[in-house]
Amino acid sequence: MSRGEWQSFHFGVPHQRDWQTGPLGSVDFLVRQQPPGRYLFVRLRFTGGGKATPVVRRVFLEFPRKTSLDLLPPVYRDNPDAEDFSERFLSLFDASIADLDRAIERYRRESFLRAANSDFQALKGDSRAWKHEAQERQLWEQTLSDGLDKK
User: Fold this and answer.
1) Virtual CA dihedral for 101, 73, 62, 52, nearest 10 degrees?
2) Contacts of 92 (CB under 8 A, 6+ apart)
3) pTM for the complete prediction?
């Protein structure tokens, strides 16, 4: 798409030269240093071959940037340029660690559910144990109902 095709796009508060273009097909990138302000504007440009509609499943913005640099001693913030680089580098590292943490948690949850399902199937397959479980549930429900205020 040529620059001329975007002339009618209302850019709002930011100046046109303030826009940054991420690498084509990138899944994440760092926004270059900007002066402090109240707003972060995001624009996505969709392209396609006309046979299918482009889809965005998720956009995640981490703003303001919080990184593990906050956990390091102040000496890592002595030089403003080094601090900026460290903050940007650690934000990518922290995002990778967060992705791993989510994957581990998802695996733990799925493992628990598989085990619970397997145990449930085994219980259901044993008629004596299933009958005992039903009696236990009935006792539990009776105990709960006894504790309710009856008006």
Assistant:
1) -60
2) 28, 30
3) 0.46
